[in-house]
Amino acid sequence: MKPVPVFTFTCPVKTNSGNKALEHLPVELANLNAVKPIVITGVEAVGGKAVRTLAGAFGDSGMTYALFDGVSPAANLALIENLKITCIENQYDAVIALGGGTIVDVAKVLNMAVSLKTADARQLSPQTPLRKHLNPLVVVPTAEASGLETSKLAHLDRNVFSSEYLAPNLVVIDPRLTRAADGKTIAATGLAALSRALEAHISTDKNPFRDAYSFAAIRFIKENLLAAVNNPGDKKASLAIANAAAMSGCAFSNAENGLLHKLGQVCQDMQ
């Protein structure tokens, strides 16, 4: 590899991945000086394995948490304003995103609004300045990850927010949560992660750190996606795809948005 004389690479995300990784969450939150988090998830998660597993992780830790399960693909800044008021009134000091896609976008923008004590979250925009670290943010991805969970990006209400301060402090990848109900779901996750990794790799402003993340993500997908699609219950293969998604997000955060990403965002906004 030809040396790159000058480059910048930032990946502030700590990753806990593996069997029962979620059991360490209360300790990790305490290390972030958080004692009263709010969990953000979608209505389909209620009563499901993901919520039960998360509840079990808190066990006898003595830590309490709130659960909001109203996130849908139509989430907007009005929802952020309502959640912000709830968080401030109840003194929730951390945000946990349980799931992927819009759930993580909502968690990131909510954390921004609460940390900045924004007067009206409906006025947030990509131009809103972020100059300091925000409150603790934890992402617990499920099989419905998009590859952007670990990134500095958040897409909400036709806005694209971008700042290294939006990236989560911690990502917890637990194989109990990453197994999909069907091959279609895991295929979508793997292909989304692959597109992020490929865009990061072919971006013009190359650097060796970004290549390392993108190469690892591509290799994990190449070696495990077919097995995960054919057998969504394959814990090892599904975990590998979730890890690939996390790595692709870190790589993508350090690259210019490529044509594929921009076209995808336009198509999403047209829905």
Offer a few descriptive terms:
271 residues; alpha/beta; Rossmann fold; six-stranded parallel β-sheet; two-stranded antiparallel sheet
Task: Give a short summary of the structure.
With 271 residues, the protein is of the alpha/beta class. The chain is built from nine helices and eight strands. The chain has a single domain (14-269), classed as Rossmann fold.
Task: Report what the structure shows.
With 271 residues, this protein is of the alpha/beta class. The protein has one domain (14-269): Rossmann fold, CATH 3.40.50. The chain is 45% helix and 14% strand. The strands form two sheets. It has a six-stranded parallel sheet, sandwiched between helices. Strands 6-7 form a two-stranded antiparallel sheet. Helix 3 packs across helix 4 (102-116) and helix 6 packs antiparallel against helix 7 (208-230). The longest helix has 23 residues, at 208-230. The relative contact order is 0.16. The mean pLDDT is 90.
